[in-house]
Amino acid sequence: MAAGLALNLTPGPDMLYVAARGAAEGRGAGVASALGIAAGTLVHIALVALGLATVLAAVPIAYTAVRLAGAAYLIYLGMRALVRPTGLADPALAPASRWLVFRQGVVTNVLNPKVALFFLAFLPQFVDPTRGSVAAQVLALGLLFNASGTLVNLGVALGASRVATRLRASGRAGLLLERATGVLFVALGVRLVLAAPR
User: Is the pLDDT confidence value at 151 over 70?
Assistant: First the structure.
C-alpha cells in the first residue's frame, strides 16, 4: 500500500487528465473523470489477473496499436477543446455531460497500454504463489491500488476545480482554462506517440 500510494501521488497522465477536467469544467467533471479513470483501471487489473496483458508485453505490434489509438484519442479531445468551446467561457452554453466525461476517462485509461504494462510489472512483485490463487492475489492488490489512486485523483479533481472556480470569475480566464486543457490533452497525446518503444 505504501508503494502504491507513493506511485499514485506521482503526477502522471491520469492525474493531469483529472486536473485538467476539474479545472476546465468544474468539480463534477473532475470527479466524473476520476471515476472514469478508476473504471478503466479495472479493465487493466482484470487483464493482468487473467494473464492477457502479457500479450502487450510479448507482441510489440499490439502494444504500438493500443498506444497510437490512445494518443489519437487524447489529441482528438484536445483539438475539440481548442476548436469547439464547451461553454465554460459562456454560461449560456452547456458543458459536457458527466456521463460523457466519465466515458472519456474510461477510454483514455484503457487506451494507455503503459497502465497494463505497469500492473504487469508491479503487482506480481507482491504475489506469493504459496498463499493461494495468483489471479485472486493480483485482483486484490490491483483493487487496493485502484482505490488508493481513485482517492488521490478525487482530491486532485476537487483541488483543481476549487482553484479554477476562483479564476473563472473572469470570462477570459474561463476561455484560457479551456484552451490550456486542449493544449494539455494534445501534448499528452503527442507524448504517447513519441514514447520510445519498450
Answer: yes
Query: pTM for this one?
Result: 0.72
18 near 153, Cβ under 8 Å? yes
CB of 63 closer than 8 Å to CB of 57: yes
Q: How many residues does the chain have?
A: 198
Half-sphere exposure of 19 (CA within 13 A, CB side): 14
pLDDT-derived band at 157 (thresholds 50, 70, 90) equals very high
Side-chain half-sphere CA neighbours of 30 within 13 A: 26
Please, what sign has the CA dihedral across residues 112, 118, 121, 125? negative
Distance CA 101, CA 93 (A): 16
In this structure, are residues 188 and 12 in contact, taking their beta carbons and an 8 Å threshold? no
Of 85, 99, 96, 108, nearest to 32 by C-alpha is 99
What pLDDT score was predicted for residue 81? 74
Instruction: Band the pLDDT of 177: cuts 50, 70, 90.
Output: low
Task: List the end-to-end C-alpha distance of the chain, in Å, as a whole number.
Answer: 27
State the cell numbers at 101. 466525461
**Total Cβ atoms within 10 A of residue 108:** 25
Whole-angstrom Cα distance, residue 62 to residue 40?
18
Asked if 21 contacts 178 with a C-beta cutoff of 8 angstroms, the reply is no
